[in-house]
Fold:
Amino acid sequence: MNYLGSRLINLYIFLYCAALIGTAYYMEHVMRLEPCHLCIMQRVFFWATGLVALAGFIQNPQTKGRKIYGFSTAALALAGSGFAIRQVYLQNLPKDQVPACGPSLQYMLEEFPLQEVIKAMFSGDGNCAEIQWQDPILHLSIAQLSLIAFGMLIAVSLFQALRK
Structure:
């Protein structure tokens, strides 16, 4: 990957994140899979990672800027992976230990104080423990696939930041 310029790597990171978001919207609107709170937070971090990479692509900075963009995209992907880890954890809990399901995000935004909504978004609930779809080949849940995607983003971003 040394022959790839930092600008091109930032473009690939952006396109990868855009493809992941597109896949998420396809699953939501075509496959009719309802995203849980943790799924929405993962989307936020895919968006944020992709937008920082897009800024890096547009700006095309030199060494110091390349490191800043690389570490920034890695940090955002790491934060997003935390939500994916939490969801995988909830999905692997025994049935009797799964937290109760909460109301939808739309209802919470209308009826609850913002502090409660944020707490629910960050911790997840029983809805996040439900596996709605699994990859037919690898038998991985969406959260597990998301965790792999975040791991790939972290690796490429760190490569971008640390290379000479």
